[in-house]
Amino acid sequence: MGSPLNKDSKMECARHGLQKPSFICKHLQYGEGLGFYEATDDPDPEYPFREAWCGDCDKVLLEQAEWNDISEGNAQIMPICEGCLTEIQARNE
Ligand SMILES: [Zn+2]
Ligand SMILES: [Zn+2]
């Protein structure tokens, strides 16, 4: 998923300033009411980033039973700041 991250990684958001990065599927960015599914694995102290995807991606993920070329190709996970993620969550869930 792009550049290597460590637990202190930050990204600059034009609207929210310096923020912790998080990850969403490409559909959520501009979507509304698409559903909002978030990774529920135990938090990894070395990888404390939120990951979320839409209802369509969740369906593909369930069909595939894991993140693989098909489910990842559908989701096209992209980094986004945590402030933006909060707004996207409110718009899609
Ligand atoms: Zn999606
Ligand atoms: Zn932001």
Helix-strand layout with pairing:
Elements: E1 11-13, E2 17-19, E3 21-24, H1 26-30, E4 37-38, E5 51-53, H2 55-64, H3 69-75, E6 78-81, H4 82-92
Helix pairs in contact: 2-3
Residues 25, 27, 53-54, 56-57, 75 line the site of one zinc ion.
The molecules bound to the chains, other than polymers, are: zinc ion
Helical residue percent band: 25-40%
Main beta sheet: strand number and arrangement? Answer: 4 strands, mixed
Q: Rounded to an integer, what's the Rg over CA atoms?
A: 13 Å
Going across the biggest sheet, name each strand in turn: 4-5-3-6
CA-based shape: globular
How many individual β-strands?
A: 6
Figure out the total of helices: 4
Strand percentage lies at 15-25%
SSE string: EEEHEEHHEH
Give the low-pLDDT segments: none
Overall mean pLDDT stands at 93
Structural class: alpha+beta
Question: Terminal Cα separation, in Å?
Answer: 24 Å
